[in-house]
Design a protein that fits this description.
With 303 residues, the chain is α/β, with parallel strands linked by helices. The chain is built from twelve helices and ten strands. Strand 5 and strand 6 form a beta hairpin.
C-alpha cells in the first residue's frame, strides 16, 4: 500500500482538477483526480476493511480538509468548487500541500485542527511523528481521534448554516439526550414566544417543578461571546432560576468567563468545541458508520 498516495499527496491534484472553476460532486471529483494522478489498477483495487476504495477515502479526506480551511467551497451537499484561497495555495505550492501548509491558513478559532487525542507533544511534533513509531492500538486511537475532529468541525459548520430555530432545537435535543429532563421530563424551545432571551426550557420532572433554562447562540468561530450577552442571560433568569446553560458555536471571551465566575447565579458555559464533542458522545446529529473490533488472546481458554 506504500505506493498509494497519502491524503496529503492528493491535495494538489484535487485543487488542480477544480482549478477550471467547475463545481463537481465528490464522486466526479474522485474520478477526475484518480485519472489525473494516473493510479494503476492495483492502486485502484485497494480497499478498506469496510469495502470502500482506499484511494476514494483519501481523496475525500483531502477535499474535506481543503474545505475546512476555505480552499474549497461546498455550494451544496457533496459538491465542491475552488476558492480564491485555493487558487493561491495551488500557485504557491504547485507540487505539494502538506497538513502543516493547511494549518498555516486555518481560520482563527477553528480548534478542530489541533489533534488533542494524539500522543504528547506539540502539534508539529505529532504531525512529524512517523506512523511506524506508533503501536497498532495508538494508530487506531489516532485515526479515530482525527475522524471525530473532522466530524466535529463539520457539525459546527452545519449548525452555523441552519437558522436559529434549528440550532435551539438541536441544543434542547442534546440536553435531553444527556439525561436532563429525566424520566417523563420534556424540553421545549421558546424563541417563538420571545421569552426574554431564554431559548429553551428543560423540565426535569413531569410536573416541571425543576427547570433548566438555556440560551443558544450561533456565532462564527472568529466571534466570541462577550460579557454583555451573559449579563443579558442572567437578567432573563432573574426571578425564574438560579442556574442556566449558555451554549454557543463559538467561544467565550475571558471577560465573559470572569463575569460568570463572579456571580452567585450558576451558569454553565458550553463553547463550540465542547458542544460538538457532546453531540458526538451522545449521538446527536451523528450516526455510527463503522464498528471495528480489537481482539486479544483469551488466556482463560488456554488455561
Amino acid at each position: 500500500m506504500s505506493d498509494l498516495p497519502t491524503w496529503e499527496d492528493f491535495n494538489v491534484p484535487v485543487l488542480a482538477v477544480l482549478s477550471d472553476g467547475k463545481t463537481r460532486t465528490l464522486r466526479d471529483l474522485r474520478r477526475a483526480v484518480t485519472e489525473q494522478v494516473g493510479l494503476n489498477e492495483v492502486q485502484r483495487s485497494q480497499v478498506l476493511p469496510s469495502g470502500q476504495s482506499r484511494a476514494d477515502n483519501r481523496i475525500g479526506w483531502a477535499a474535506s480538509y481543503l474545505n475546512r480551511v476555505d480552499a474549497l467551497h461546498r455550494p451544496s451537499r457533496g459538491s465542491y468548487e475552488i476558492t480564491d484561497l485555493g487558487r493561491r495555495m495551488l500557485a504557491e505550492h504547485p507540487t505539494s500541500i502538506t497538513e502543516l501548509d493547511l494549518r498555516a491558513v486555518a481560520k482563527e478559532g477553528d480548534e478542530w485542527w489541533l489533534n488533542k487525542a494524539t500522543p504528547a507533544g506539540s502539534p508539529a511534533e505529532v504531525l512529524d511523528q512517523a506512523p511506524t513509531e506508533l503501536d497498532p492500538t495508538e494508530q487506531v486511537e489516532r485515526g479515530v481521534a482525527r475522524i471525530k475532529g473532522e466530524v466535529a468541525a463539520d457539525l459546527l459548520t452545519r449548525l452555523q448554516e441552519q437558522d436559529p430555530a434549528f440550532f435551539e432545537s438541536a441544543v434542547v435535543k442534546l440536553l435531553l439526550a444527556m439525561g436532563y429532563g429525566g424520566a417523563g421530563g420534556r424540553g421545549v424551545t421558546t424563541s417563538a414566544s420571545n421569552d426574554g432571551g431564554i431559548d429553551g426550557i428543560i423540565d426535569q420532572d413531569v410536573l416541571g417543578l425543576s427547570k433548566v433554562y438555556v440560551q443558544a447562540k450561533r456565532y462564527a468561530p472568529s466571534n466570541s461571546v462577550q460579557r454583555p450577552e451573559l449579563q443579558g442571560f442572567v437578567g432573563a433568569l432573574s426571578g425564574k432560576a438560579e442556574r442556566g446553560v449558555f451554549i454557543s458555536t463559538s467561544r467565550f471571551s475571558q471577560g465573559a468567563v470572569d463575569y460568570v465566575n463572579s456571580i452567585p447565579t450558576r451558569i454553565i458555559l458550553i463553547d463550540g468545541q465542547r458542544l460538538t464533542q457532546l453531540m458526538i458522545d451522545y449521538g446527536v446529529g451523528v450516526q455510527v458508520q463503522e464498528i471495528y473490533k480489537v481482539v486479544k488472546i483469551d488466556e482463560d481458554f488456554f488455561t
